[in-house]
Amino acid sequence: MPARSNHSVSHPMRERIGTAVHLSFAVLMVASGVRYVLRHSPADNVWTIALAAAVCVLYAVVAILAKRRQPWLWWMIALVLSWAVLVIAAPSFAWCSFALFFLSRVAFSGWIAYLAGGVTALATAVGLFRLSGDTDVAMLLGPIAAGVLLTMVYDRIEHDAALQRQLHAEVSQAQQRLAASEREAGIAAERERVSREIHDTVTQGLASSLLLLEAAQRSWPESGAKTEIQKAGTLLRQNLADTRSLVHELSAAGLEGGPLPEALEQAALQYLDSVRFHVTGVPRPVPADVRHALMRVTQSAAANIKRHAHAGHASVTLGFLPGGVTLDVFDDGRGFDPAAIPPPSKQGGYGLRAMRQRVEQLGGVFSVESSPGEGTVVAAQLPVPPEENP
Asked: Which has more confidence, 156 or 326?
């Protein structure tokens, strides 16, 4: 049976127990040796003291090997057997049994640990029973009962330590799984964010440019075709700038500076020939992520009006509230049934979904009010942290 290699008790606790056991063994061996020398003749002292010295040497060897994590099985067996002979021959050394018992439990595992502890307790009982002149049964049963009690206590300590290690391992595994889930969620969120950026910049710009070029083709060579081509070129240049910003820092051109109302009006005019812009409340700075979301919602809503609404008029209203900011984009176009929107596909359908995700990820509320022939209102309300309020 090999010596214990993976201790059941945690390392700091094991170090403290080991130090206390070694010190108590040294003190008790010295005290027991002095007691034996004072009570026995020199002729009896020589062999007993020599055996006690051998036990001390064996104990030191086992302690050193255990500290260095080197094999100690046979040394420990020799120590237990030598101790059994010593305590039977000289019961004065019986008090050192406690230290030897704990060293046995640290050294061995399984059945051999119980065997070593049992040999130590039994030898101590026999020695003390002999010391009483073979008359005191308490001297015989006391060490055995103490050995049983100490075994149960140590087993309980090992059980609790094993349970603690199991719980720690489960917590570590749970933390690793949580970290993996967070990484996966972060990747998914980043993919969603990039897809929204592409939709709100590249896709919308290219779609609007295509509409302008198709209109120019239909009216060619009339004078209006030149105007449509110029607008398409302007959109394509802006689309190129947005693409570069997306590649480098995924930030919209002009997002970092300039008043928000003017920025939103320009964002809408990228896709619409004219738009009525209104501001309610007292304008104030808003967080960058809120500003970014308002810009993208305005761009996407204006692009949808250009592509689908066939509207005569459109308006954008920006409202500043004490705890947030609102955005309403209205058109008087042909409208639609919001409940009948098809799922996203290669042909489109990402606009409203992307707008809703942007707003809701910032803790806001997004809604669409529309019906066939009645126009459309796209509304968003975003909270503004208190520190951003004037």
From this structure: 326
Q: Could you tell me the maximum CA-CA distance found in the chain, to the nearest angstrom? A: 134
Dist CA 111 CA 4 (whole Å): 12
Least Cα distance to 330 among 318, 313, 315, 319 occurs for 315
What's the pLDDT tens digit per position in 96-144? 777 777 777 766 666 777 777 777 777 777 777 776 666 767 666 767 7
> Which tokens belong to 223?
């004078």
User: What contacts 23, CB < 8 A, 6 or more positions away?
Assistant: none
The half-sphere exposure of 51 on its side-chain side, counting CA atoms within 13 A, is: 19
User: Per-residue pLDDT tens for 205-255?
Assistant: 666 666 666 666 666 766 666 676 767 667 777 766 666 555 544 444 444
3-state SS assignment for residue 331: strand
Map residue 179 onto helix, strand or coil. helix
For the question of whether the overall pTM of this predicted structure is more than 0.70, the answer is: no
Tokens 């690793």 -> residue: 176
Catalogue the long-range contacts made by 90-93 (C-beta closer than 8 Å, 24 or more residues apart): 90/36, 90/48, 90/51, 90/52, 90/127, 91/127, 91/128, 91/130, 91/131, 92/32, 92/35, 92/36, 92/39, 92/131, 93/28, 93/29, 93/32, 93/33, 93/36, 93/52, 93/127
CA 366, distance to chain mean position in Å, is 32
Q: Express each pLDDT in 68-86 by its tens digit.
A: 766 667 787 888 788 788 8
Report CA dihedral (57, 60, 66, 71) to the nearest 10 degrees: -10
Instruction: Report how far residue 205's alpha carbon sits from residue 35's, in angstroms, rounded to the nearest whole number.
Output: 100
The gap between the terminal CA atoms of the chain, to the nearest Å, is 77
Whole-number mean pLDDT of the chain? 76
One-letter amino acid of 190: E
Tokens of 47: 């062999």
The 324-331 sheet, strands edge to edge = 276-280, 314-321, 324-331, 376-383, 365-370
The conformation of residue 322, written as its DSSP 8-state character, comes to T
Burial group, residue 268, by CB count within 10 angstroms (0-12, 13-18, 19+): buried
DSSP state of 382: E
